[in-house]
Design brief:
CATH architecture of the largest domain in chain A: 2-Layer Sandwich
Largest interface: A-B, 89 and 94 residues
Largest sheet of chain B: 8 strands, mixed
CATH superfamily of the largest domain in chain A: CO dehydrogenase flavoprotein, C-terminal domain
Shape of chain A: globular
Number of strands of chain B: 29
Strand order of the largest sheet of chain A: 2-1-5-3-4
Number of helices of chain B: 19
Helix content of chain B: 25-40%
Strand order of the largest sheet of chain B: 3-5-1-12-9-10-11-20
Radius of gyration of chain B: 27 Å
Number of helices of chain A: 18
Oligomer: heterodimer
Radius of gyration of chain A: 23 Å
Helix content of chain A: 25-40%
Strand content of chain A: 15-25%
Structural class of chain B: alpha+beta
Shape of chain B: globular
Chain lengths: 456, 765
């Protein structure tokens, strides 16, 4: 496959790139650009962060989770391109020196690139922008001081202009479809192909699983799958909507969902990860599925020219098994517009960039003091994302009060038999899941329920 | 004078532009080989068959080595020769290197290494300290016991007593740059090694033994590490030796870097402890006797476990004068990774033990935990009241700074008011409770293996006045090179631009100690000073003779050499000395004075001096889930007369967060087969950006080292790590607010552990 992209302002055309060669390996081993570091090779440390610009704007991405074909028609800045053509440092670089933001320096190029992208976008939620960059030396305080120091400084011209003249993408062939229709055709013809959306999961099959994937279909060019449609009746998210765009779309409607996505992975992962990918890979701990189940979402599937819909909870059949035929793909997910009593609670060892031990999502409708509908779903509690059917039944028709809540909490053991693993014990999962219903009750009654709401 | 100036890290600009060079960034010849280990998949047993055909046939593979193919000694241990580079047929932990692959790319080597077909005769593995104790599986013949007075009698005779036991987990270093080394073959079997190591001399030594050549055949260079934290004191040996063997065997350069998961599975971590205690005290909280039992999980090989466990015992008193104490330490051998050096080197574990006791005693008496601690402090040198102000190992405490530091920190942090406000807030909130806690640090400075307290330096002045500086210390981010350069510039009275800091190199300075034990600036700064002063004396002698004045009156300052009435720019003075045939190259050597230590008896003066610190941390916790956050931290830390305040504050901030991480979110989990389940950052959670305290005030204590150290500064690498203990104690304080029972919290205090503790306290579950 041939691709064309910009690298630090220079056009690069690569004929015959391997479909699963990562940008990180190419930069370091082929291109000789050693500034971008490998810290973990799985998107959890951020040492390999680069800035990628396309017609959707500039964003930070983990180059270890980025296959070269995903760059076709885009523009890449590495740390070598953060400074200006005359060697003039980017304000972020100056500030990192002045505020002592580096010690061993190994994470620094990744931090710099996350900060360059955030600065370009005018983002000042530094903890969130940098949640995907781990530093073991500084304790982060000086890095945040550096980020704050440049908030008001203008974006340098060489960064401002990035993406102004994106290269025409090379013709990458049928395995890089440009629309849902093209995808439907190539996938129906090649049902054994691996679909790559944001690659935040699939890349690990390559970097950690040491697998060779062939053939691979890259979905990134399917612009129509990136559409977000919000009408009076429903919200429809194309499968290729990334998690940061999704956050922007759902946060005004369901603030708690937005807050959950804020803590979903990290900025560079959210910039790549798609809602379709998060559903289709069938993880029992993917955070979107329980939320979407609680919101009563519908999954839209397509195979060739045949489309079907199903309640999203029915998609998850068993561990590693979904209701998806060979050649069939997730086209979109939609959920009805509704009064916002939705809350999601993500319990993990670390608040940011951690996989949930338990993700509990609640949507309890109360009319005249009684529960008329309850949709409660969990991730991390079973082999699939799963509704708490007994709990819901225990609430339905009951008065919405603490007594009913306490009674319903006793039903969790009928719905779930969670596992003990490195994230949490079965007991903690089960007891905490039940306690989250109590939290939900307090939350919708307007009480402070999270330590994240408390400041010194 | 450049000393004490707030200069940024010498490589800061290289860091931010991505041009700082680490091992994997060094340009290599096109035919460079890349190495990977095949790893054991069981924790204990014997290999019955190892079929490596698929490995050899894997694309790109050039060579595959097993223990039988090694040219000389099959050992990478830094201590007692019990760590085969490649398995000798026995397997001692899951992740042990069995065979070595050399291939044309890093990925090809990794892919091939995964293809080994190994069958084992599996034996039951010892995975816990309890199991190891039961099986009497240990290092040394029995427990080490250090004691002072009759602790048991003192406890039994005391008005009150508390006792308890808790788990204290280990810690993954998570240096951002994983272990890496590269070897270039030289003529006649010599080898040049570049290694990401805190201990180039140890690398040189192990490579020489692994090749069967004298140390002079091996040269090791280390410009910088992408983080070390103790994890690169001995854990880099296997990579460097492998590279050297392959390079010499094939005549090609060889490079090895661990994939992150391999790094976490293969290498050692901070020692996990189980600590039991009994403490007797009077009604005012004066400790009368304390007993500790340390069960130390050392893993499968001895490595540095003995001095680590010793140092834990040496910090079992922390800041407190305890009249009678007994510390019993078992160094247990288990089938896990070989636990190793990690910032603090056992000191933090020992300190957590006594801080736990203090927390428990304060809870028992219902008195303010800060007041309790102050009552038990060692005496300050200017206010001696106690008849006995010695540590459990007999070292007189003559530099105790914590009285003044504590009062100042209580004041600047507004502790008393906030504590009252927190109590009020807690009374009004059922589900969420806050906590606040203070913890002091007294940390002993010197290697307890006394002979390691030496350092060398090599300084050249070129005829243009530029200075080339080299010493035995290594740079891992701590700013050592900059501090030492500041010393050199100060001695010559010149600007920093004239001083070139160069990679640590065993060919320039031999027989160096690890950059460890916080000793880097103390030892190497002094060695550099000695070298610089030798050169100054030579220059002064020559110049004073030329200008007919007294050599003792020659001054080096402001970029000039003042010789009588003459003011000679340093560059010109260097040129004149060169022309006068003065040697402008000198070595420097330093050894720490006053040390005397018997580690078997546990008696003497193991430490030249102590570094001090104090922290107050505030947290909030959630009863329903055990979730918590650190809201605010205030720190006052003693760096003596600081060599560089910004570098020192950077050490303190970073160490606190790392220490708090150890005791909170960083949980190592092995399954019942001994497989490390937390083998990547996806499952092992070091603090992220938002985990630092929202309010984070760090200040340096304005003091001078009472001992004659380099410019009266103090070591700062490890001591502030222990400030993180205050976060753990703050969680204990918050959990205590849910009920009457003592929280008895374990470490790490993950959300789940906090949740369990809350249930114990509030429901008696």
């Amino acid at each position: 496959m041939t691709i064309t992209f910009h690298l630090n302002g220079e056009e690069v055309t690569l004929p015959q790139v391997a479909s699963t060669a990562t940008l990180l390996d190419w930069l370091r081993e082929e291109r000789g650009l050693k500034g971008t570091k490998e810290g973990c090779n799985e998107g959890d440390c951020g040492a390999c962060t680069v800035m990628v610009t396309d017609d959707g704007g500039s964003k930070s991405l983990n180059s270890c989770l980025l296959f070269l074909p995903q760059l076709n028609g885009k523009s890449v800045r590495t740390v070598e391109g953060a400074a200006g053509p005359d060697g003039e440092l980017h304000p972020v670089q100056d500030a990192m020196i002045e505020h002592h933001g580096s010690q061993c320096g190994f994470c620094t190029p990744g931090f710099v690139m996350s900060m360059v992208a955030a600065h370009k976008n005018g983002a000042t939620d530094h903890d969130d922008q940098l949640a995907g960059n781990l530093c073991r030396c500084t304790g982060y305080a000086p890095i945040i001081r550096a980020a704050e120091a440049v908030e008001e400084q203008p974006v340098p011209v060489w960064i401002e202009n990035e993406g102004g003249d994106l290269p025409a993408p090379a013709d990458a062939g049928a395995f890089s479809p440009r629309s849902g229709n093209e995808l439907a055709k190539v996938y129906a013809d090649n049902p054994d192909a691996v679909l790559v959306a944001g690659a935040t999961d699939v890349a690990l099959w390559v970097t950690k699983g040491l697998r060779q994937l062939d053939p691979v279909i890259f979905l990134d060019g399917c612009a129509d799958l990136k559409e977000i449609e919000i009408t009076d009746d429903r919200v429809r998210l194309g499968a290729m909507v990334d998690m940061n765009r999704m956050r922007d779309a759902v946060a005004p409607l369901h603030a708690s969902y937005g807050e959950m996505i804020r803590r979903y992975a990290s900025q560079p992962v959210r910039n790549a990860a798609t809602v379709g990918g998060n559903i289709a890979n069938g993880s029992p701990i993917g955070d979107n599925p329980p939320a979407l189940i609680a919101l009563g979402a519908t999954l839209h599937l397509r195979k060739g020219d045949t489309r079907r819909e199903l309640p999203i909870e029915d998609f998850f059949i068993a561990y590693g098994k979904q209701d998806r035929e060979p050649g069939e793909f997730v086209e979109a997910v939609s959920f009805p517009r509704q009064t916002d009593v939705f809350r999601s609670y993500k319990i993990s060892k670390r608040f940011d960039q951690d996989i949930s031990a338990v993700c509990g999502c609640f949507n309890v409708i109360v009319e005249n003091g009684a529960v008329t509908d309850a949709r409660i779903a969990f991730g991390g509690m079973a082999a699939t994302p799963k509704r708490a059917a007994h709990v819901e039944a225990a609430l339905l028709g009951k008065a919405w009060d603490l007594a009913s809540v306490k009674t319903a909490m006793g039903e969790f053991a009928k719905d779930f038999s969670p596992l003990t693993d490195m994230r949490a014990s079965a007991e903690y999962r089960l007891q905490t899941a039940a306690a989250l219903l109590e939290r939900y009750y307090a939350d919708v009654n307007g009480e402070e329920v999270s330590v994240l709401e408390i400041s010194a | 004078m450049s000393v004490a100036k707030p200069l940024p890290h010498d490589a800061a600009k290289l860091h931010v532009t991505g041009t700082a060079r680490y091992i994997d960034d060094i340009p290599v010849p096109a035919d460079c080989l890349h190495l990977a280990f095949g790893l054991s998949t069981i924790a204990k047993g014997r290999i019955t068959a190892m079929d490596l055909d698929a490995v050899r046939n894997s694309p790109g593979v050039v060579d595959v080595l097993t223990a039988d193919d090694l040219p000389a000694e099959n050992d990478v241990s830094p201590s007692i020769h019990d760590e085969p580079l490649l398995s000798d047929g026995s397997v001692h932990y899951l992740g042990q290197p069995l065979f070595l692959v050399a291939a044309t790319s890093h990925r090809a080597a990794r892919v091939a290494a995964s293809k080994g077909d190994v069958t084992y005769d599996e034996e039951e593995a010892l995975l816990t300290v309890e199991a190891a104790l039961q099986a009497n599986s240990r290092f040394e013949d029995g427990p080490r016991i250090y004691s002072k007075g009759d602790a048991a009698a003192a406890i039994d005779g005391a008005a009150r007593m508390v006792e308890g036991s808790f788990d204290l987990g280990g810690q993954e270093h998570f240096y951002l740059e994983s272990q890496a080394a590269m070897a270039m073959p030289q003529e006649s079997g010599d080898v040049l090694v570049a290694s990401s190591t805190q201990h180039p001399t140890e690398i040189q030594h192990k490579v020489a033994d692994g090749l069967g050549v004298p140390m002079h055949s091996v040269r090791v260079e280390t410009r910088r590490m992408g983080g070390g934290f103790g994890g690169k004191e001995s854990q880099g040996n296997a990579l460097a030796v492998s590279c050297a063997i392959v390079a010499v065997k094939t005549g090609r350069a060889a490079k090895m870097r661990y994939d992150r998961d391999d790094d976490m599975v293969i290498t050692g971590k901070r020692h996990a402890f189980k600590i039991s205690y009994r403490a007797g005290f009077d009604e005012e909280g004066h400790l009368q006797g304390v007993e500790f039992l340390h069960l130390v999980n050392c893993g499968w090989a001895q490595d540095l476990s003995l001095p680590v466990a010793d140092r834990a015992m040496l910090h079992a008193d922390n800041a407190y004068a305890i009249p009678a104490i007994r510390i019993e330490s078992h160094r247990l051998k288990t089938n896990l990774q070989s636990f190793t050096a990690y910032r603090g080197f056992g000191g933090p574990q020992g300190m957590v033990g006594i801080e736990r006791v203090m927390d428990h005693v304060a809870h028992d008496l219902g008195i303010d935990p800060v007041e309790l601690r102050k009552r038990n402090y060692y005496d300050a040198p200017d206010n001696r009241v106690r008849a006995d102000n010695t540590t459990p190992y007999g070292q007189e405490v003559i530099d105790f700074e914590l009285h003044g530091m504590t009062d100042k920190l209580l004041d600047t942090s507004n502790y008393a008011t906030r504590k009252a406000e927190i109590a009020e807030w807690n009374a009004k909130n059922d589900r969420l409770k806050r906590g606040i806690a203070f913890s002091p640090v007294k940390f002993g400075i010197s290697f307890t293996l006394t002979h390691l307290n030496q350092a060398g330096a090599l300084v050249h002045i070129y005829q243009d006045g530029s200075v080339h500086l080299n010493h035995g210390g290594t740079e891992m981010g701590q700013g050592l090179f900059q501090k030492v350069a500041q010393v050199a510039a100060s001695r010559f009275g010149i600007g920093m631009h004239l001083v070139k800091i160069t990679a640590t190199d065993t060919a320039k300075v031999p027989n160096t100690s690890a950059t460890a034990a916080s000793s880097g600036a103390d030892l190497n700064g002094m060695a550099v000073k000695v070298a610089c002063d030798t050169l100054r004396d030579r220059m002064a002698a020559y110049l004073s003779e030329q200008h007919q004045c007294d050599a003792a009156s020659v001054r080096f300052e402001g970029g000039n050499v003042h010789v009588g009435e003459n003011v000679i720019p340093f560059e010109k003075a260097a040129a004149q000395c060169y022309q006068g045939r003065i040697s402008l190259s000198a070595t420097g050597f330093y050894k720490t004075p006053k040390l005397k230590w018997d580690r078997i008896k546990g008696e003497g003066r193991p430490f030249f001096y102590f570094s001090y610190g104090a922290a107050i941390t505030e947290v909030v916790t959630d009863k329903l889930t055990g979730e918590y956050r650190i809201l605010r931290t205030d720190i006052l830390h003693d760096a003596g007369a600081t060599l560089n305040p910004v570098l020192d504050i950077g050490q303190v901030e970073g160490a606190y967060v790392q220490g708090a991480g150890w005791l909170t979110t960083e949980e190592l989990v092995w399954n019942d087969k001994g497989r490390l389940a937390t083998h990547a950052p996806s499952t092992y959670k070091i603090p992220a950006c938002s985990d630092r305290p929202d309010v984070f005030n760090v200040d340096l204590w304005d003091g001078k080292n009472r001992e004659d150290t380099i410019y009266r500064s103090k070591a700062v690498g490890e001591p502030p790590f222990n400030l993180g203990i205050s976060a753990w104690l703050a969680l204990s304080d918050a959990v205590g607010a849910y009920g009457d029972a003592y929280p008895a919290i374990n470490a790490p205090a993950t959300s789940e552990e906090v949740w369990r503790s809350i249930r114990r306290v509030s429901d008696g579950v």
